Amino acid sequence: MHRTVFHSLRSQLLFWLLAPLALVAALDAWFTYRSAQDTATMVQERMLLGAARMIGEQVHLEEGVLQVVIPPAALELFASPSRDRVFYRISSANGQLLSGYFDFALPSKTMQAEEVQFFHTALRGKPVHSVAFAQPVFSAPERGPVLIQVAQTLEGHQDLARNIWITALRGQLALLALVALLLWFGMRRGLRPLFDLQRRMRQRSAGALEPLEAPGAPTEIQPLVSALNDYVARLDAHMSAHSRFIADASHQLRTPLTLLNTQVSYALRHDAPHTRVATLQAMQEGVQHSVRLVNQLLAFNMAQAGIGHPPEQIAVDLQHTAQRVIEALAPIAQQRQIDLGMDCGAGPAMVMAAPTLLYELVANLVDNALRYTQQGGMVTVHIGRNAEHLVLQIEDNGPGIPEAERERVFERFYRLQDARSDGCGLGLPIVREIATACAAQVRLGSPAQRSGLLVTVEFPLLHSAA
Questions:
Q1: What is the pLDDT of residues 429-465, one digit of tens each?
Q2: Which domains does the chain have, with CATH numbers?
Q3: What is the pTM of this model?
Q4: What's the average model confidence in pLDDT over 109-124?
Q5: By CB distance 3.0 to 4.6 Å, which of 19, 27, 111, 224 could disulfide with 134?
């Protein structure tokens, strides 16, 4: 459940919007707390100074002696549920105690008339906030100012600061909750096109590959819609090609299987040994042709998969691969009395390719040349290089391919009208598919000095491919 919520786009957006707001609210709460402390201190100091002035107004000179009367109103200023203790001290200019608490600490410096000083101290085991006010005696200015000190414990100060802070904090939390609610509804409204797109995708029937229409989608969603439509178009093309391939393969396999069934029925109806032997030989040729067709179909499918999902390509020696192919096909060439050889330079010829696909490419080219070259002909494999490419050439002196049809032979199952081979029309399509997967180019041409076919495959040089 936690993982699902965390991976929700709406939840992530809400989190990344509220997290900075919560951080700002926390900082604001700290500043509010400091402001509440300052406000409570200011209120307390005004009360202390007010009380000191009220006491100072009652100081007078009577028969040469300073008299002090503490008015009740001066102490009633501090009445609160906190029941703070209030301390006071009145002393003459020379430090003589006139009234109040004798253990009340004096200010750190001598004060002038009308001067005010606030300070923190401790009195009888409790921290207090104090004010010292120098009250001049107008009837006897020569005596100097009377020092009036009033102090109050800090319980009321803390209660006031706490109440101010809690009140402000409640407002901030309520505002943050309101912002979160508005953001939630805003994101629901803003993400509605995305969820509408999700709903329309889920409502599509299986196999529906038409483009997705989203005319009212926001600008940020349009690239996603375009990417989906591009993927759907590519998937449609892939599925269409796959369907055509299955249809063509079925058609190609139907004929030899039907012929094989006819031959079996013919052999069962005849008892003559020579007839059955001839029929079995024909059946063997049909089975070999079908096996080759199936192998070609699998190779073609593997080559197509090499384009969409290319296998890991490594540095492969093209010369060594060609030698393996020639060794494998040498018995066929010997049986048909065809001169099969290879012409290459010294040293390896490295290309970037999947080894199995590269072997299949060379094998199909050599096999095609052997099939279409008449008895006593010649097939030569050339490997060379130019400034930009490593070049593989398969040359034969067979009938060749007319220039007008050299592009069509790369189509699946296409065969020349006068073809005398038992090929299935997949050799050159396989070669082109593999060459595309290896970033190579395939061209058909004619040998320079004689008839036949020259197939050229240009691979990027190894440093270019890397």
A1: 888 888 888 888 998 988 877 788 999 999 998 764 4
A2: 28-162 (3.30.450), 207-309 (1.10.287), 310-465 (3.30.565.10)
A3: 0.48
A4: 89
A5: 111
Tens of pLDDT, residue by residue over 288-329, are 767 766 766 666 666 655 555 556 788 899 999 999 999 998
Apex CA 19: angle with CA 18 and CA 24, to 5°? 95
Q: What is the pLDDT of residues 223-260, one digit of tens each?
A: 777 888 788 888 777 777 677 667 766 766 676 777 77
